[in-house]
């Protein structure tokens, strides 16, 4: 018997056996239920991993901030020790100082910068009131334009 003849003879028998196993014996229902059960578990695992990653990031940011604050305090102390406590009559040169407000945070997206972004909000700036009422100053400035 040739291979092609044997294939023609056996193929319908195998097909019928597989169909009986899947449909009549409930094998197809078992396969489908296992696939559905496997799919329903997967998103829960991903959500827990994402939540764990967020908690880890928040914990890392807090630890990094604490570490930087501790390092800044240590640096201030070392600078005062280097200058000497007797210098400046024991006055703490860094008392009441704060880090720059525009220093940003690690891994934060860069924001747009305006013309006065580097100036502290409480900075009084330059007093220009003397220029406003003095006509002679303006006349002198205008002479250069003629």
Structure, explained:
The chain has 146 residues and is mainly α. It has 4 helices and no strands. The longest helix has 57 residues. The chain starts with a helix and ends with a helix. The mean pLDDT is 76.
Short description:
With 146 residues, the chain is an all-alpha fold.
Question: Which key terms come to mind for this protein?
Answer:
146 residues; mainly alpha; elongated
Strand content: under 5%
| Poorly predicted spans | none
Order of helices and strands: HHHH
Query: Helicity level, as a percent range?
Result: 55-70%
Structural class: mainly alpha
Average pLDDT, all residues: 76
Number of strands: 0
Give the end-to-end Cα distance, rounded to a whole number of Å: 116 Å
Radius of gyration: 39 Å
Number of helices: 4
Silhouette: elongated
Largest sheet: none
